[in-house]
Amino acid sequence: MSKRVIALAAVAAALAGTAIAPGADAAGVPAGADVRVGSTAVGTVSPTAIGANMPFWNPHLTRPDTAELIRKAGIRTLSFNAGPAGDLYHFGNGGWLSPDPGGPGNGGFENLTPRFTFDQFARTAQAAHAGMLVHVNYGTGPTDTKDAPSTPENPKPGDPQEAAAWVRYANRTHHYGVRDWVIGEETYLNGWHPRPPGMYVEPDAHPDRTPAAYARNSIEYAKAMKAVDPAIRIGIELAPYDPAGTDRPGIDRNAKLWDDGVLGTPGLADAVDFVDIHWYHAARAGSDAGVLADTAAIGPTLRALRTDLDRASGPRHRLDIVAGETNSGAATATRQQTGAVGALHLIDNNLTLLENGATAVDWWALYNGPNSTPDGGWGDLGLLSSGGCPSDQPGRTDCEPPAGTPFAPYWTMQLLTTALKGGGTLLSTTATGSSTLAAHAIRRADGTLAVVVVNKDPQHAQGVRLSVPRGYRADRTVTWRQGDTSPTTRSGPAPTTLAPYSAAVVLFQRTR
């Protein structure tokens, strides 16, 4: 293994809580950032807060090593979510898809044949010791067939009783213990007018696709599903909007209109338990530096959403925020997704979402598959390789490594879940002196203090002067840097510098 300059601040074995003075030391440590961990709580994290989506159209869930790879990553929730195809999916008879009400040319969703059953999904999650989140079909009904599809004259929209039957099958018949259920998938896309050029229509046979109609129907879904199992939690689809809305104001305006229409519907806030948002804001950024700086948009967006939720529900019933999908990219493939940019974005983005009010964050995806990039390469939103080439690049020999091979974001997922192991309390943390260094901290339930530092500079190491509350000593450091094929653990005092494009988790134990 190559030598690496590992980044962080030198701290005394019995750290007294005073930051190390700035400037290079005698060993030539570069001047850099001051990182100060406070004692103020900014949020709490549950042991199951970190998850990943597993779309049913990717076959690799059934690989014999999948459960072990999930466990090694520290992923504690597996999400049954196939994107738009989920609103065509029926769980019975091993899983099948309705025809798309938007037509066969609407994104090709009706051709995304399920490659594993719901039972295989549930058994894999159980083998990985992971909880489950399931998206139920809101768009199409179980009487829809290829020969008798839903039409505008004869619509066959999603059926609350089919969703209730799924809850019964999962939790009463098979005792899978699925707690979280979401009604539909990105239903808000149908409420956007004018529609961006080339944008597909979310599969939905409801004649009325307004936000108020979705809310009213969601109330009926929630009633039917909770009648089967009152212990479950029901989520609905909201669109996170950037209150600044300066780069793509049309998108943020439509998102705000959808959210207001849903939340303003009488009875909705009392009927459901959380909202599911999909956070792909970084896909707007483009450049490597822009993607890595994009976490600055999370705070204003989630604070605005929190205000909307509290206004809708009042003090009696707090609606949680689940970031059910997130990634450095979205529909357009980029080389960033599988490399250092995607990896560093994952750990900084997910922690920032949690610090700003998300109770859970699910990465898209465990397995996804390659798509072509504009420059003739390929990108993949998965943590693990699917082992192929983009469908429009047959015969290439320089595509993905063998199926199951971890991409760079898999390794920083390990760092993230190491920091958050067992859940705990997120602490106020500041980093000054550098615009390309991010820091986070959590006091875990077992008493360990985990400090996460991320160097977003691709060329320069950064010195870090670290200050933590009294009564802790550095025990070990887990690091990953660009090019590593796994994280490295080193015992002893925290190191003094962070290598270019790298992240580190320093674990402190109490001294008293």
Task: Give the neighbour order of strands across the main sheet.
Answer: 19-18-21-16-15-14-1-17-20
β content, as a range?
15-25%
Q: What is the overall shape?
A: globular
Structural class call reads alpha/beta
Q: Span from first to last CA?
A: 37 Å
Report the average pLDDT across residues: 91
| Radius of gyration using CA atoms only | 23 Å
Number of strands: 21
Alpha plus pi helix count: 10
Q: Percentage of helical residues? A: 10-25%
What ranges have pLDDT less than 50 throughout 5 or more consecutive residues? 1-27
- How is the main sheet built? 9 strands, mixed
What labels describe this entry?
512 residues; alpha/beta; nine-stranded mixed β-sheet; eight-stranded parallel beta barrel; globular
Give me the secondary-structure topology.
Elements lengths: L32 E13 L4 E4 L12 H8 L3 E4 L8 E2 L5 E2 L20 H10 L3 E6 L23 H14 L6 E4 L27 H18 L4 E5 L11 H15 L4 H4 L2 E6 L8 H6 L4 H16 L6 E7 L13 H16 L2 E6 L6 E3 L5 E3 L27 H12 L4 E9 L4 E8 L4 E7 L6 E6 L4 E10 L6 E4 L5 E2 L3 E9 L2
Parallel strand pairs: 1-17, 2-3, 2-11, 3-6, 6-7, 7-8, 8-9, 9-10, 10-11
Antiparallel strand pairs: 1-14, 4-5, 12-13, 14-15, 15-16, 16-21, 17-20, 18-19, 18-21
